[in-house]
Amino acid sequence: SECRWDGQFLLNCSFTRISTIPEDISQTAITADLSYNNIKTFVCSDGRNEEWMLKHLNLSNNLISELTLTTCTNLPILETLNLSGNAIHTLTLDMPTPAHGSKKYSIVDHLLPALKVLSVERNNLNTVPRGLGLLQSLQTVYMSSNAIQQIDPEDFQNCSQLKDIDLRNNKITKIHPDAFRDLNKLQVVLDLRENALTIPLPQILVSLNFFQLEVYLSKNAW
């Protein structure tokens, strides 16, 4: 391919018109830039047990529509994952398993244990991806410019390390009063600008730490 490799840490495949992930990515690569291509699918693990040393993976501005991260057991030190500017409508982080006729979400062990930043801006998400709490190191999540309509109490459950949530420019009309409860480290930004909120939010905001948190609410329907 036309990918450029510095021989040590950086793989740059951006703007190379590739449609699949190169199979010969060096396991020593720290950063892989695969942005602005024609990639439609991304599978973390292809059955091999080798672990990648990637810390930063950029898959932005491709053609990915569905993505499952439950197989990402071979990226133990990945810190940033950029999926912005795709066509993702389904992002799977947990695995539903039947339990007494209902859906029970099982824990996925070792799911991207070092991931701190997840960016899924400018996609086609209708809901917040289920299972964000499985990403135990997650500190920042960017979900602006999607089609998210409401925030449920389970959406950020167990996201104990979250500091920054960007939900700007969605279609949010409803936020459950307990949606951000127990996010004790949320101390940077909660961005809800450019949505469709019509009701006051005192129940939601009362539990947040206003001394450390910036909350943006402009350009809503009220």
Q: Briefly, what is this?
A:
The protein is an all-beta fold and 222 residues long. It has one helix at 202-205; strands spanning 4-5, 10-12, 31-33, 56-58, 66-68, 80-82, 90-92, 95-99, 102-106, 117-119, 140-142, 150-151, 164-166, 174-175, 189-191, 214-216.
What does this structure look like?
With 222 residues, the protein is an all-beta fold. The chain contains one helix and 16 strands. The strands form four sheets. Strands 1-2-3-4-6-10-11-13-15-16 form a ten-stranded mixed β-sheet, with no helix packed on it. It is globular. It starts with a strand and ends in a 6-residue tail after the last strand. About 4% of the residues have low confidence. It comes from Brachypodius melanocephalos. InterPro entries: Leu-rich_rpt (IPR001611), Leu-rich_rpt_typical-subtyp (IPR003591), LRR_dom_sf (IPR032675), SLRP (IPR050333).
